Amino acid sequence: MNLTSGMILGLAYILGLLSTGVAWGGIIVLGLGCGAAIALPKLWKGQFSSRIWIAAGVVGLVASLYFQIRVPQPGVTDISRLLAIENGANQQQVTVSGQVMELPRLNRSGKSQLWLAVSRVDGATQSETLKPDQVRGKLYVTVPLLQATGITPGQEIAIAGVLYRPKPATNPGGFNFQEYLAQDGCFAGLRGKTIELLHPSDRTWGWWMIRQKIIRSQIDWLGSPEGQLVSSMVLGSRVVDLPFDIKDQFTRIGLSHALAASGFQVSLILSVVLALMKRFSTRSQAMAGAAAILIFLGLTGLEPSVLRAVIMGMGLLVGLLMKRNVKPLGGLLLAAIMLLIVNPIWIWDLGFQLSFLATMGLQITAPTLVKWLDWLPNIFAPMVAVPIAAYIWTLPLQLYAFGVLSPYSIPVNVIVTPLISIISIGGVISAFLALIFPIAGSASAWLLHYPTYGLLAIIDLFCNLPGNSIAVGTISAFSTVILYALICLPWLRPKVQPYSWLIGLIAVTLVFMPAWYVKANSLQITLLATLRDPILVIQDHGQTTLVNSGDESTASSTVLPFLQKEGINQLDWAIATHSTATTNTGWSTLLAQTPAKSFYQLASLTAAENATIAQTVQTHQGRYLPFAIGQTMQMRSTSVQLISTEPEIVRFQIGEQNWLWLKDSPKKSQTDLLSNPALNNSQVLWWSGKALKTDVIERLKPEVAIAYSNRVDPETVAQLQSRGTQFYSLGQDGAIRWTPQTRFEKTSESSEKNARSI
């Protein structure tokens, strides 16, 4: 088998893994292989035999089957099995004992998170076949910050708390917590309250000890957050508690790669080691280089991007020993195949995908860009070409996953590259010194104060510029494939390189035109699933209205991702119907990134609260207006009218269909509602899910009833269903989308349909 045939089989293996995203994907790959065996030998006579294409199809089929075998599944003794007892209970009060697997980390809610290898569960509803000391599995645990202080890997602990079943994404663009844990072989979570050390003296050695020594040394003199930033740029942000606001800034501006331990650090370490070992034999150089990057791997952890860089680094060292040049693309393909054989699930890991795509960009596109930039000084051409190449190759995947692009990404990368290089080199030296003499490590880290401060200042400056991130909406899988085909075209066919501008124009059209056409010609109502806040988004032929924002957490984790997925950068109308301050705290976070032209506020908050929201709106040249009873806001084909404030009732006229939002109202006061003419002819009722009187239901006569709360009065639901009303619960069904064509549809169902149609 020659090298080209091996590459074909390797690519077939990767294609087979990717085909698992499609129904019967492995069979399709086999069919493509058989089709290529018939057609391609006739087109490329003498190049490849039919057997290699048939073999490629078989490899793709085997890869798809291998993926299914390796998909993590809960074992018969897994702790998640306890949640399947008693009619599928979603949570139980338990005490879980086990061994700490990793050092606790800080999460966004200010709690500590850790992984626990379970050895015993007490207090759970047990079955006859699963005893307390027989329960096993991996558990995701969150506990109050002080409870986790002093906890280290290897310790045996007992945690009392609530065992729960992780939830999938309930809103478009939302985080799929269930899938995230399942990729690590975890199928249950624990909201811990207290921790008890079972064996306080237990303390096992691990790489975490060296890692913590480095981090403490760098923070000691450099301070926070500069110290955490230096440590993150050396070891990766996944093992360092870097403040989340700084992480978010780096991500928003397109610099998240600077916080990920990967190829840059490995290249830097190899360069330093080989330079220091220049006087020694080639074998000594290779051994020293291999030891250095293996130590680096131990410190950073077995992350896909680090493993890819380490494998390619080892390939360079092998080439050094054998005195042969290593082909970068071949090394990248070999690294991908090796990692995907070890863990085929990584094929769907976004970090894995972005790491390989960025590396491909550096190897395929960067050299061509350097030639085009030959008018620049030699030192500057690579600095400009490298971020452009990486950006081009990762942008389609980012648009598919998030629907957001960073216009300042390339200039920021060019500007901060010298600072990142200085900090990374200094950070590696500081880390080495910290292991020998901690004070020397702290002193050397202190020298990085001004470069680190300057980097943070530049990032903050660009994050505060208008348009620092633009939501264009997520693109389809088909569009993503077409974009990558266009990117590869100049490389596969060098003759078309002079027409790269035309290829770029086609790519931009492919991204923006479909999104613009859909938004300009569609009517869509989406009710987002939240814990307690009624939130509705109206997209009416290019105009967008948002009703309520929720609290700060809801706005940042639910509303903003949905708006970005839909390509919404500005709200035409924002309406705050909720009258409590806690449910309006999200507006400041939301409006800072997605400003509103007109903001309507129910006049029931304090003057200070109104002033805060008004200032945020007016900062972005928006209008802040009261929302008065009887006032109607007319969009293209929808209107919104405030009917009452005690209780709060809002009517939405969508074409010829009436929607009624009804806030909580005690049964005693519901009699007063019967005299309100707004209750007539309401086809859709949107309410909290609390009890409604029979008279009110008969007066409303809704065709569809939607409860936005997790707790729904069963008697009210029974009455609604007995009269033929279609009932939805956002807490159970997830977000609901309505369009004139599809009517009401659960977004979870539509997501599954889209996944099957890829």
Automatic annotation (TrEMBL):
It is found in: Cell membrane. It comes from the Bacteria. Residues 21-197 form the DUF4131 domain. Gene3D superfamilies: Ribonuclease Z/Hydroxyacylglutathione hydrolase-like. Residues 234-492 form the ComEC/Rec2-related protein domain. Keywords: Cell membrane, Membrane, Transmembrane, Transmembrane helix. The chain crosses the membrane at residues 12-40, 52-69, 255-277, 284-300, 329-348, 379-402, 414-437, 470-492, 498-518. Its main location: membrane. InterPro entries: ComEC_N, Competence_DNA_uptake, DUF4131, RibonucZ/Hydroxyglut_hydro. It is a multi-pass membrane protein. GO terms for cellular component: plasma membrane. PANTHER family: DNA INTERNALIZATION/COMPETENCE PROTEIN COMEC/REC2, RECOMBINATION PROTEIN 2. This is Competence protein.
